[in-house]
Amino acid sequence: MIEWLVLGALALAGGASSSGSRSSSSGSRSTTSFDTGEYRRKKAADEAAWRAGWEHEVDRTRWIPQSVAHRIIETYPLPGADRTYFMTSIEKPAKLKELLAEFAAHNLQHLAERKAALKPFFDSVEKNPLTDEQMDACICFDDAVQIVAAAGSGKTSTMVAKAGYALHEGLVAPEQILVLAFNRDAAKELDARIQTRLAQFEGVDRITARTFSAFGLSLIGEATGRRPSLAPWVGSQTDEVAKIVEIVEDLRRSDPTFREDWDVFRTVYGRDLDRWSAPRDSANPSIVTTNGERVKSDEERIIANWLFHHGVSYEYERPYEYDTVTSRYGQYKPDFYYSDVRLYHEHFALNRKGMPPPHFEGDYLGERRWKQGLHEERGTDLFETTSHEIRSPGSFDRLRHELESRGLSLHHDPDRTGKGPPPPTISQLASTLRTFQQHVKGSGLTIAQIRAAIPVGSDDAYTARLTRFVDLYERISAEWEERLRAIECIDFDDMIVAAAEHLEAGYESPYTLILADEFQDSSRGRVRLLKALLKSRGHDARLCVVGDDWQGINRFAGADLSVMSHFKASFEHSTRVMLSTTFRCPAALSEAASAFVQANPRQISKTVVTTNEYDGPALVAYASETSEASTSLLRDHLDALRKQVASGALHGSNGHRPRVMVLGRYNRDRPADIGRWQRSHASAFDLEFRTVHASKGLEADYVMLVNLTEGLMGFPAKQTDDSVLDLAMPEPDPFPMSEERRLFYVALTRAKRQVRMYTTIGEPSRFLMELANGGHLRIRTTGGLLEPCPSCRSGHLKLIEGRNGTFQACSRSPSCRFKRNVAVRSGSRSAGNDRIEAPMEAGCRCPICGTGTLILRDSGPYDPFLGCSEYPRCRARARPLEAARV
User: Does the keyword Hydrolase apply (predicted)?
Assistant: First the structure.
C-alpha cells in the first residue's frame, strides 16, 4: 500500500511538470520519465539484501515468536538507503505487520505439522489423549502464552504435556524448566505428575517445581551465596499478629506520641464507616455506641465515642427544651446536648458541597433550615458538624475547640468502659495491620505510594481514618523491618520481592521455559518476578501461564485479576489460547454457570463445551422454612443417596466410588452432624465439608451448597473487608459482588453430576434467584415453588397483607419497588371462587391460603386455569402466566 502511495506521488509530480512545460511560452522545459520496471527491480534487490541480513536469526523449523519480527524491524534498517525519516516512520509499522503476518502463517503450518507428527506423543503423555486446544497450547511457543482454562478443562495435564513437548522437541534442557504454583499442594501435585508422566525423558528430575515463595527463597540464596532464614515468628498468622501486638506495646511504652495516636485510633477510629452515598443495608444490625446508645448513623456513633472517651458528658436525642409539636413537625430532638455548657449539637449528612446523599427522601435541607431557625428564634446555642467534616483529617478539631472554649476540659481515656460494645482490641487491629503489611510488601509499595492512594475529594472515603492508619502503619512497619534486620532474617513477602530485585540487578536466571499455574491468583509481586525472569535471559526465555479469570477469588490475598484480562499490558508479545472443553460438568450445569459468571462483562468471554454426557437434573434448589429444616432436608437427601448406592441404582462417575462434597461460604456453615454423617455413610460414598475457597481445584459427583441465603454471613457475603486494605490491594472489579459471583461459579463447577442448593424461604440468595430467573432451575418448597421477582431478578415475591388488600412485593424492598396486586374478588363462574387478579406461574405457592400449590387444570370447554391444590378448602383461581403472555 505504501509503495503505491509513493508511486502515485511521483507520477503526480511528473504530471504537474509536464503540464507546466506545455503551458510555457518558451517551451524550453523537458519532462522526466519514471522507469517503473527499474524501480521494482531495485526494490526487490533491496528487499532481498535486507532479508539476507537477518534471515540467519530466524529458525523456520520451529515456532517463530512475535518478538523476532519486532527485533528485526528495530535492528535492521529498512531496505533502501535513501529513505527520509518521514517515509521510514510510515513504512516501519507496515513492514512489521507484514512480517508478523508472514510468521503467523508459518506458525499455523508448523502447528498443523507438529500435531500430525506427534499424535502418538499427545495421545499418551497424559492418561487421556489431549484435545485439539491442549495440543495448540503445547506447541505454541510465543514469547508469552496465556492459557485461559475453563473449570475442569485439564490445565494440569496441559502444563505437564507442554513441559514434555519442550523436552521431546529439544527446545530446552530439563534443568531449564521452571514450574511455579500458587500453593504447596499444587506444587507437589505438579512435580509428582511431571516425574510420573515424563519419566521417559532423561534428567526429568532436574525440572524445578516450586511455589513462588520457595523459589524466591532459593534464588536469593543463589544470587547472594547466603540463603536467608525466615524469622521465627513468620509462617503462623497467630505468631505474626502476636509480633505486631508486641511492637505496638513496646512503642506505646517508649513513645508518648505514638501511645496517644494509637489509643485515639483504637477507641474512636477503630471501626470503619459505611459509604456515605449508599443506603444502609437493612440486614445490618443496629448501631450502638460504646456508651450503649442506639444511634441512627455510623457517623453519630463516631462522634459519641469521641465524646465518651474524652470524658464529655452528653445526652443523645434529648427532647428540645421548647415544645415544637405542630401539624407538620413532631417534637424536635437534637442529636447531642451538652448540659454542662448548654450547647446543642446537630450532625448533618452533608458532603463538601453541602448536599445530602442521593438516597435521602424528603426535604432534608429544609429540615436543616427549620432547626437552625428554631435555635435562632429561641436563642439557644447550636453547633453543627457534617459528614464531610467528620470524614476529613482534623475531623474533631472544631468540636474540641468549641467545647474547650466554653470551659470544658477534655482528656482522652482509652480504658473507659461503657454499656455498649467495646472498641476493637489491640489484637484485632494488629490482625488488620498484618494483612495490610502483606499486601504492601507483596506489591512492593512505598509509604509515599500508599499515601498517594488515599482518596481526595471523595464523599465516601473516611480520609481521617485512612490517614491516621497509614501514620501508625509507617511506624509499626519500620520497627518490624528493624527487628528482621537485627536477626538477619526475612519474612514470606520478602522472598518474592527480593528475588525480583536480584534479577533486576543483573542476576541471570538459568530458566528458559517458565510455567506458572493459577495465574488469576497472581499478585503484582508475582508478575514482577515473572517479568524479571524473562528479562534476565534476554530473548531466550519463554513464559506460559495457565489460569481462569472466572475463578479469580483471591483478591483478599493480593491477587490482581487484571493480570488475566490485561495480560498483554504486562507481557507485550503474547498469545492467548483457550481451553474451553470441560471434562467435569454436565452440559446443563456448564451452561448455567457460564451464563451466570459472564453477567459481568469484564470476564473474558468463552463458550464452554463438555464431554460429560450426564443428562439428569444438574441444578436443584430447596427452600425450607428455617435453617434447621434445611439441615434436616440435607440429612434426608444424604440418607436417600446411601440407599440408592446400596441398591445398586447409583454409582460414582467412571466406575469410582461416589463422592459427595458439602460446601459453605464460611467455616461456620459446617453442619454440626457432618462427622456422624460421614461415619454412617462411609460404606456408600465419601463425604466431606469444605468452604468454597478450599474446594477450588477439587471435584465431586454431588455438591451440596448450604446456607445459600442473604445477610451478612450469607452467600453472597455482605461482610466486606476493612476499607484501609484497599489502599494496598489491587483495584476492585466495579461490577457488583463480582468476586462473590466468581466464588459462586467455583462452587457450581465442582460437580460432575449435580449441585443441590439449600436456602430458606425468607432469605433466599440473590444468586439463587438469578439462576431461577434465567430458567436454569426452580426453587422447591414444601408448598410449591418460590417465585423470582421479574423486575430485579435477584429477589423473590412475598405475600403482603396491605390496607387495601393482598399483594405481592419483592423481598428486596425498598431496593426493588416491584409490586403485584393479587387482591381477590368473587368469581363469576361459580359462587365462592377467589379469582386472583394477576396471572400466576404453575407450581407457585397459592397467595390466598398460603399453603397450597397452584396447579394447571382443564375446565372442559373453557380455557385452562390454575387452581389451588387445597381445593375445595381453598377455591383460588388464576390465569396461567404463559397464557397471559400470549
Answer: yes
pLDDT in tens, 551-584: 999 888 778 888 898 999 999 999 999 999 999 9
Calculate ∠ Cα 186-192-197, nearest 5°. 125
The reply, when asked if residue 151 is annotated as ligand binding, is yes
Q: Are 541 and 104 in contact (CB under 8 A)?
A: no
CA 234 from centre of chain: 27
Nearest to 686 by CA among 653, 651, 660: 660
Q: Please write the tens of the pLDDT for every residue from 584-617.
A: 999 999 999 999 999 999 999 999 999 999 989 9
What pLDDT does residue 532 have? 97
Is the distance from CB of 120 to CB of 112 less than 8 angstroms? no
Pick from 213, 186, 215, 241: nearest CA to 492: 213
461 is in an annotated binding site: no
Least confidently predicted of 40-54, 123-137, 175-189, 691-705: 40-54
Report the C-alpha gap between 109 and 139 in whole angstroms.
Answer: 12
What pLDDT is attached to residue 838? 67
Q: How confident is the model at residue 536 (pLDDT cuts 50, 70, 90)?
A: very high
Q: Is 156 annotated as a binding residue?
A: yes
Contact 267, 421 (CB under 8 A): no
What is the separation of C-alpha 761 from the centre of its chain, rounded to a whole number of angstroms? 28
Cβ–Cβ < 8 Å for 742, 550: yes
730: left (phi over 0), alpha (psi -120 to 50) or beta: beta
153 is in an annotated binding site: yes
Q: Between vectors from CA 251 to CA 247 and to CA 252, what angle results, nearest 5°?
A: 115
Quote the CA–CA distance of 79 and 88 in Å, as a whole number.
10
Residue 402, CA atoms < 13 Å, CB-side half-sphere: 18
CA dist 633 and 622 (Å) reads 9
Please give the average per-residue pLDDT across 493-518, as a whole number: 95
Could you report the per-residue pLDDT of 348-368, keeping only the tens digit for each? Answer: 999 999 999 998 988 999 999
Measured from the Cβ of residue 271, the count of other Cβ atoms closer than 10 Å reads 17
One fold for 127-231+492-579 and 622-786: yes
- Specify the DSSP element, H or E, that contains 383: strand 381-386
Domain ranges of the chain: 2-23+31-114, 127-231+492-579, 237-253+425-447+460-490, 256-326+340-405, 622-786, 822-885
| 137 or 880, which is more confident | 137
pLDDT tens per residue across span 200-219? 999 999 999 999 999 999 99
pLDDT digits 0-9 by tens, 382-399: 999 999 999 999 999 999
**Apex 762 CA angle, 756 and 764, nearest 5:** 35
Sheet strand arrangement including 513-516: 208-211, 177-181, 513-516, 542-547, 144-149, 574-579
Residue range 127-231+492-579 in CATH 3.30.360.10: no
User: How many CB atoms are closer than 10 A to CB 191?
Assistant: 17
Within 13 Å of residue 157, how many CA atoms lie on the same side as its CB?
21
154 annotated to a ligand binding site: yes
For residue 609, give the H/E element and its range: strand 609-612
Q: Is 152 annotated as a binding residue?
A: yes
How does residue 8 score in pLDDT terms, banded at 50, 70 and 90? very low
Please check if 150 is assigned to a binding site: yes
Q: Which residues contact 569 (CB under 8 A, 6 or more apart)?
A: none
CA distance 151 to 157: 13
C-beta of residue 309 within 8 angstroms of C-beta of residue 267 = yes
429-438, 662-671, 725-734, 837-846: segment of lowest average pLDDT? 837-846
CATH placement of domain 622-786? 3.40.50.300
Q: Measure the CA–CA gap between 307 and 85, rounded to whole angstroms.
A: 71
